[in-house]
Design brief:
alpha/beta, 11 strands, 37% helix, binds glutamine, Glutamyl-tRNA(Gln) amidotransferase subunit A, Amidase, EC 6.3.5.7, ligase, protein biosynthesis
């Protein structure tokens, strides 16, 4: 059914980069056989899944939507991938994204842009745009995305599906191609909140292969979905509904808060005063980490090597010049500059200090409130080509997802209405490792 649906829809949506048809059929047959022999059903038994193409998969191309990795055929599965397989999900294929997860529209894919299934003249968001579009188009039952500054939540909002960025460290990053290691997190994109709880259950947990993996006990997530939010205290940051937020988005968020009131929760306006510095700090920190992480792509160890180099240095230069797209180069240069001696204190160190202030903003609000609620993005999806020439405008689409990433706390985006036929997302933010409350509130609203 999944491959039929892909056949019907993917010419228009273009969510997939690589299909795993033979592999999927073989693993489905294997699951049937195990069941016939009396085996138990795993948590995700038989469910067709898609993976963002920055998660390494044994024997299946993993390109990061980059020309540099167009031939990269990994020899191992990342931890989240392994866990999905252990839960008996079936891997349908690899999904399009902005190159190396840098972007918010999928237009930075070096292959082709994915389109929003609600209206194919519009972007699906990014960088996990393929992951969100595939779920919205009914091609897979769920997918995994990665979120560094909004890349699960924002495309989920634009495509009208549910996207969860877990607490930093809850899901192993082993086998996730690194963009900004202090921010990157894998999470589920699903049709509803219950599915999100089950997929999170399957992928969360300590992993000694990831040095920043959190060694915490994993609770049962689905049992949190009681429908009861009575007495929950919600903070609504005034900075998240201010300037630059589309009035229709604001209206949809206020209507959602009314629903919470009717369910017995209370809300109050709060302030996250350093919000205005978050995007600037993020682009220094994420680009700095990216410039270091992407140094491994040298034409020797992974991916494509340029032809006919004059010497070793020329081989690096040509491979990197030909292999990376414009946005990736922009960030490598920005990050290298910010980390250079003489500039480090002024940019990188300063941005780290701002990050701490932003985290403290959240700590203060969470002393009195259980959750923070606002929009996932200031506007619904925009038209393809509308923002490509304007990286700064593009960066501002993440103004309300980036602070959450810098603070490392969990957040989910759930659909909360439409503007001109395009979905709007509600962002529900929780305390670190309190995914249960986030999921409970999202489920009660949905
Ligand atoms: N759009 C943001 C960026 O371009 C976030 C990307 C992400 O979360 N991977 O960096």
């Amino acid at each position: 059914a999944s491959f039929n649906r892909i056949g019907q829809t993917d010419e228009a949506v273009r969510a997939f980069l690589t299909l795993n048809e033979e592999g999927a059929r073989a693993s489905a047959a294997e699951l049937d056989k195990q069941l016939a022999e009396g085996g138990e059903r795993g948590l995700l038994f038989g469910l067709p899944a898609g993976l963002k193409d920055n998660m390494v998969t044994e024997g299946l191309l993993t390109t990061c939507a980059s020309q540099f990795l167009r031939n990269y055929d990994p020899i191992y599965d990342g931890t989240a991938v392994k866990k999905l397989k252990a839960a008996q999900s079936v891997l349908i294929g690899k999904l399009n994204m902005d190159e190396f997860a840098m972007g918010g529209s999928n237009e930075n894919s070096s292959f082709y842009p994915t389109r929003n299934p609600w209206n194919t003249d519009y972007v699906p968001g990014g960088s996990s745009g393929g992951s969100a579009a595939a779920v919205a188009a009914g091609q897979v039952y769920f997918s995994l995305g990665s979120d560094t500054g909004g890349s699960i939540r924002q495309p989920a909002a634009y495509c009208g599906v549910v996207g969860l960025k877990p607490t930093y460290g809850l899901v192993s990053r082993f086998g996730l191609v690194a963009f900004a290691s202090s921010l990157d997190q894998i999470g589920p994109i699903t049709k509803n909140v219950e599915d999100s709880a089950y997929v999170l259950q399957a992928i969360a947990g300590y992993d000694s292969m990831d040095s920043t993996s959190a060694n915490v006990e994993i609770p049962d997530y689905a049992s949190a979905l009681t429908g009861d939010v009575k007495g929950l205290r919600i903070g609504v940051p005034k900075e998240y509904l201010g300037q630059g937020v589309d009035p229709k988005v604001k209206e949809a968020v206020l209507a959602a808060l009314k629903v919470y009131e009717s369910l017995g929760a209370t809300w109050e306006e709060v302030s996250l005063p350093h919000t205005e510095y978050a995007v600037a700090a993020y682009y220094i920190l994420a680009s700095s980490e990216a410039s270091s992480n992407l140094a491994r792509f040298d034409g020797v160890r992974y991916g494509v090597r340029a032809d006919n180099p004059d010497n070793l240095i020329d081989m690096y230069r040509k491979s990197r010049s030909q292999g990376f797209g414009a946005e990736v180069k922009r960030r490598i240069m920005l990050g290298t500059y910010a980390l250079s001696s003489g500039y480090y204190d002024a940019y990188y160190l300063k941005a780290q200090k701002v990050r701490t202030l932003i985290k403290q903003d959240f700590d203060h609000v969470f002393e009195k409130f259980d959750l923070i609620i606002g929009p996932t993005a200031p506007t619904p999806a925009f038209r393809i080509d509308e923002q490509v020439g304007d990286p700064l405008t593009m960066y501002l689409n993440d103004i309300v997802t980036i602070p959450v990433s810098l603070a490392g706390v969990p957040a989910i985006s759930v659909p909360c209405g439409f503007a001109d036929g395009l979905p709007i997302g509600l962002q529900i933010i929780g305390k670190a490792f309190d995914e249960r409350t986030v999921l409970r509130a999202a489920h009660a609203y949905e």
